[in-house]
Amino acid sequence: MENTGHRAPLPQGASVRRIGAGDRGLLRGIAGIAKRWVLPDDFDSLPPDEAAKLAARGFLVSGYTEEKYAAWAAMEGGIFAVVADDEVLCFLAAYGAHDGITPDDAGSDYIRQACNPRAVIVKQVGTHPGHCRKGYPGHLYDSLMRRAQADIFLAIVEKPLNAGSEGFHAAQGYAKIATFLHPDGRPRGIWKKPYDGTGTAP
């Protein structure tokens, strides 16, 4: 996760693309990126300095298979990515307003029940390690708001503190509005960015 609201220009040849269910090479790349960010099972037993480094950089609590990402790509919200030379630099997976919440996603289900029954929800964002700190994911968030023309919601794990994700999303203009105790025992902060009327993507 990148703790920056900076919008660096995309590199030459790169573009924001919607990923289709048939884009197997790109979906494989997305699954590989997500795997690098997933919180390790032994996090709670890590030495304090290692745990602090993970919390500071940010993490995901779930990584999916290529097949799961292919199914997500077919949804209204779908998966968008910055792609250059058939390589995924960063990606964003989201629920659209009319997508059903998957049965294992209690955090997003809470957002739909407590905040907005048609909430557009960011489920995951990840950046290839070789392209961190460049601000590329900001282009995906801008594009999502422009397309959705709606407030955007998301959930961030608070135990362990996902400081990297919180800092990144605060820099994008998101603010915490609620806390939800997830069935896995790890509380989630619910964050929201109000629709700005236009979207800010170029």
Produce a short descriptive summary.
The protein has 202 residues and is an alpha+beta fold. It has helices at residues 24-37, 48-57, 66-73, 106-114, 136-148, 163-171; strands at 15-19, 79-84, 87-95, 120-127, 152-157, 175-181, 187-193.
Q: What is the straight-line distance between the termini?
A: 23 Å
Across the major sheet, the strand order is 1-2-3-4-5-7-6
Overall outline: globular
Biggest sheet overview: 7 strands, mixed
The overall pLDDT average reads 91
Give helix % range: 25-40%
Low-confidence stretches at least 5 residues in length (pLDDT < 50)?
A: none
How much of the sequence lies in strands comes to 15-25%
- What is the number of helices? 6
Helix/strand/pairing class, anyone?
Answer: alpha+beta
Radius of gyration: 16 Å
SSE ordering: EHHHEEHEHEHEE
Q: Give me the count of strands.
A: 7
List its traits.
single chain; 202 residues; alpha+beta; 7 strands
Write the layout of secondary structure elements.
Layout lengths: L14 E5 L4 H14 L10 H10 L8 H8 L5 E6 L2 E9 L10 H9 L5 E8 L8 H13 L3 E6 L5 H9 L3 E7 L5 E7 L9
Parallel strand pairs: 4-5
Antiparallel strand pairs: 1-2, 2-3, 3-4, 5-7, 6-7
Helix pairs in contact: 1-3
